[in-house]
Amino acid sequence: MNDTTGLGDDVQLITLDVNGTSYEVITAPRRTLVDVLRHDLRLTGTHVGCEHGICGACTVLVDGLPVRACLMFAAQAEGARITTVESLADPGTGELSDLQRAFTAHHGLQCGFCTPGFLMLAQGFLAERPEATKEDIREVVAANLCRCTGYQTIVEAIDACATARRSQRAMGAEEESCN
Amino acid sequence: MTSAKDDRLVGRSVARREDPRLLSGRGRFVDDIELPGMLHAQFVRSTVAHGTITEIDLTRVRQVPGVVAAFTAADLELGDITAQLGRPLSEFVPTAMPVLARDRVRYVGEPVAVVVARDPYLAEDGLEAAKVTYAPLPPITCEEQALAPDAPRVHAEAAGNTLVDVGLFATEGIDEIFDQAPCVVHVDVRTGRQNALPLETRGAVAQWDAREEQLVLHACTQTPHQVRTVASRCLRLDERAVRVIVPDMGGGFGLKCVVGREEIAAAAAALRLGRPVKWIEDRKDALSASFLAREQHYTARAAFDADGRILGLDADVVCDMGAYSCYPFTAGIEPLMASAEMPGVYKVPAYRVRGRAITTNKAPTAPYRGVSRPQYVMAMERLMERAARELRLDPVEIRRRNVITDFPYTGVNNITYDPGSYLESLDLCERALREAGWYDRQAAATAEGRHIGIGYSCFSERTGYGSAAFAQRKMEVVPGFDLAEVRMDTSGAVTATTGTISHGQSHETTMAQIVADTLHLDIAKVKLHQGDTDRITYGWGTFASRSIAVGGSAVRLAAAKLGDKLRAIAAAEWGIPPEDTELDRGRVRRRDDPDVALSYERLADTAYLTSHLLPKDIDPGLTATAVFDVHNDGTFSNATHGVVVELHEGTGQVEILAYFCVEDCGVAVNPQVVEGQCRGGIAQGISGALFEQITYDAQGEPSATSFMDYKVPTAQEIPEVVIHHLETPCAFTATGAKGAGEGGTIGAPAAVLNAVNDALRPTGVELDNTPITPETVHRALTPRTPEQTP
């Protein structure tokens, strides 16, 4: 057998847009998006916790919406914009985003394994629903599993980030109206 | 230690130093490790609970495209993993756990063969082609079957399917005490089989390093040095020829503190094939075929006087350990822990206990956060509640009359408890609930016909188990001490090592806080190494809430020694005694003239680069090591939990309305980290009380193999927790800290169960078992006509 990819004979070439970079990947059709991100593109920030769509550790954004990358074949993500946890910090300085900083301030992570999933869930959700209340956040956060924190500090971190963003926007709007 | 009080980092919620990497996807977990030429292992697992293997045919497996090899136990010729207690055969029966099953399987999911392929998907293809034939034997799936006369044996050598049978205590005259007591209450407490369930499953990457002549095993373990020992023995390598490295770890909760079979098998495959081999456990295997926990049964009675004071406690504890005894702790860990510590925070003058570990055809168990204490606390707290009802006493008042108040206190179990705040935490917890208005709300709700209950649990947890405390169990492998090294380089930067290993507990921050304070050094100058057997001389890893109490103390002592050396070098240069110098913000200064100081960089330069200038009695270099052990019975953190629940009539759902925790872990090195440990522990404890359970059918098939069947609570089920801290500094540790990892898990189940029972008070139903299912609650709340009553 002349297969050099280690993937078997049935392979395809796909193009993925991840964090604004375009990647060409030779992959098997049955390979999940999370495996391609982690093992082919070496973007290992996204984690695998259950492989059946419950724990949410593999959450990434696909066209801005949170998606479980273990439930999607990589080939299905062609043509979409994929965003992973590696995109959140400033690429130049490495400075953490406001959401990431809120997680630190509120001790919203312990072992950190589920954290990328929660960050991407929150990132997608707050973009859609900047006015979300703490109760809304708690409901959405219930989509993912964390085994360390008891969730309270995750909810508080996301709520604090949303509140800070709203007050910043309000200040911005005020400044604009003054000008 | 000369730093001014307000400069100190210990006691402050210093921001976690591990966060930036974990938040930006730069953490490195086992599955993130990729090596050139790496292969992937998966395990053929038993489909029957009990049987002899009549044939293993891997011919077709080896023909699957991408499969490189497939091995059985016979192919790998590995030694067994056998955990031992130094007890007579009447008390302990050792059982060998082969790395791969040889001729017999004892639970569904037991590894029978390992398949190695170029890719994990292809390895799974290989599994499907395996043909294993079994001659089934009758499975033992519950305590009643295991202990039945003439029951088939899970292990031929274990008569009565009993691995451990020990009566640790039997106060003389205890029967008379029970005969004469004005009040005797009984409980029959059972707790469900659970999975500790770290979000990251187990895993390993094994590689033979030809240059170092060393097996490098990246493993997801809480006890790297112990994995090294077992790997070297099973693989017949010198211990120095095995290096175990633990990268970032996604939780452990005890499940990863025992040595698993799969990492050893993966290592053996890597040695055979001369190529790196990775094994990552999938969630199905993690749920059903990994180590489980918790299934215990307490039949207990307590005698009280008319005022509600305990006169005696008599308990029979049966722990269902599953198919094998775990290494190194053995099947004794649960019954011996329960037997030794069951009186808990209460003054119990007479005590008798029998503790048994039984073996069944279910996945083996490992310690899980709390180890027996969630269960014995539940039994004790149920006894308290039942006696309070019988004697018409307030549930808090009966506890108040019984908790230990004079320290140090030596109990009937021969344990000396170090000072704690048992009564204070109880009082504060009750006051917090009253002040928050929960008693008023309960009264109002009851008047409206709603079912609101308030429940408490009071407990202490032994945390600083030194080797003396572990040796009492007669383990042949005795954990307890820890070893630290602190070294400074010529730039004045410090590297500390610890034999403990963080899997979420923030050691990189808290240990650095301890070092920075001790050396009076900027925390940015301190880095921690953990989890590498070639970098860390020895250590016992992280379990039993020991890291800060024991490991942190070793770090503290090593840092202090290094500080002494810095002072000695400076003193020699000044020609004054070292006592006349002190550490001050990265410098050593003269006490008599504080403006005269030498920076650490300057002293390190002398120690390494111009060591000829050192006096003869000072060795070159700046390293210091220290060993710390707790030589007495250990340290005891304590807490009171108070919880408010509402029961919903239509659904039987238990809703938690409020949760209060008053905890005392001595000096809290980082209060935010301590709170994180409390909250996480409480979530797991609530989950044990209300949700999680793995049951087995009559054939020994586990009920929960995915998150569709195993309920892990989400942010919707876990309430906000109000935490109050008390601080009784510990005299036995160098940091004043006790452990803080397990308390939440220990206290929550009993508190929730008591709250549910309080809410059920008008129905007359009392529940003693967990998980408390909606069916149970619904049945209790639904009035039955006489015909419906069984």
Automatic annotation (TrEMBL), chain A:
Instruction: Give the source species.
Output: Streptomyces asiaticus subsp. ignotus
Q: What SUPFAM superfamilies does its record include?
A: 2Fe-2S ferredoxin-like, CO dehydrogenase ISP C-domain like
2Fe-2S ferredoxin-type domain ranges (all copies): 12-88
The protein's name in its UniProt record: (2Fe-2S)-binding protein
| UniProtKB keywords | 2Fe-2S, Iron, Iron-sulfur, Metal-binding, Oxidoreductase
Q: Does this entry carry the keyword Oxidoreductase?
A: yes
Which PROSITE patterns does UniProt cross-reference here? Answer: 2FE2S_FER_1, 2FE2S_FER_2
From TrEMBL, chain B:
PANTHER family the UniProt entry points to: ALDEHYDE OXIDASE 1-RELATED, XANTHINE DEHYDROGENASE
- At the top level, the lineage of the source is Bacteria
Organism of derivation: Streptomyces rhizosphaericus
Pfam families in the record: Ald_Xan_dh_C, MoCoBD_1, MoCoBD_2
Q: Could you read off the lineage of the organism from its UniProt record? A: Bacteria, Bacillati, Actinomycetota, Actinomycetes, Kitasatosporales
Specify the Aldehyde oxidase/xanthine dehydrogenase a/b hammerhead domain's residue ranges: 24-138
Annotated protein name in UniProt? Xanthine dehydrogenase family protein molybdopterin-binding subunit
Q: Does the keyword Transcription regulation apply?
A: no
Swiss-Prot/TrEMBL keywords: Molybdenum, Oxidoreductase
The segments labelled Disordered in the record are 765-790
The answer on whether this UniProt entry bears the keyword Oxidoreductase reads yes
Gene3D superfamilies registered for this protein in UniProt: Aldehyde oxidase/xanthine dehydrogenase, a/b hammerhead (3.90.1170.50), Aldehyde oxidase/xanthine dehydrogenase, molybdopterin binding domain (3.30.365.10)
